[in-house]
Amino acid sequence: MQTKKIDYTQINGWGVDADPENDPTYPMQHREDAPPRDIFYDRPTQQPVDVEVLHSNERPDVTAVFGTTLPPSGLSGAIRRFAFKYSENEYKHWLPLIFADRVDVVEGVLKDLAHGHVPNIFAEKGYPMEWKYNRTAFVTKMATIAAITVGTVLLLNSGKDKKKAKYARGYRGK
Question: Membrane-spanning regions, if any (predicted)?
Fold first, then answer.
């Protein structure tokens, strides 16, 4: 198979965006600076910012409307504040946010326990419905969790018998 050389100058429109002074997307790229020409709706009234709202560092301000029910707090909030220092195209943004969600779950369980409420984790994780509608996956998941738990316990206790035997013989070790 022979590769045919292409003369790009003969292609209509080739390199049309190479000159930044003649970039047809220029007005859209700088929408924030330009007067709104292509917005056909009224911007909603800005909701008052009376709680901490984390927003992307790629945008100059918060959106007009946002949720206020769960402002960032605790360790998970600190992790989220750290994450929002970085751009949305970096792992330093998304991985801490995923980790913060897991930390938030633990914080919620601890908060429940501190208030005297023992959380029903079995029901909150939807296990009764999974047992009812997806029994095979449920049994597989529980068997995997049990196997990992038993393996971890056996691994952690494997050295205790040797230590007990040493002490039973009167060995104090030097």
Answer: 138-156
Q: Report helix, strand or coil for 59.
A: coil
**CB-based contact 74:109 (threshold 8 Å):** no
Per-residue burial over 116-140, b = 16 or more CB atoms within 10 Å of its CB, e = otherwise: eeeeeeeeeeeeeeeeeeeeeebee
Cα 140 versus chain centre, distance: 26
Give the C-alpha separation, 75 to 73, whole Å.
Answer: 7
Query: Is the dihedral angle over the CA atoms 129, 130, 132, 138 positive or is it negative?
Result: negative
Show Cβ contacts of residue 26 under 8 Å, excluding neighbours closer than 6 positions.
Answer: 20
> How far apart are the C-alpha atoms of 154 and 26, rounded to whole Å?
64
**Which token pair is 6?**
């292409």
pTM here is: 0.57
Cβ atoms of 60 and 87 closer than 8 Å: no
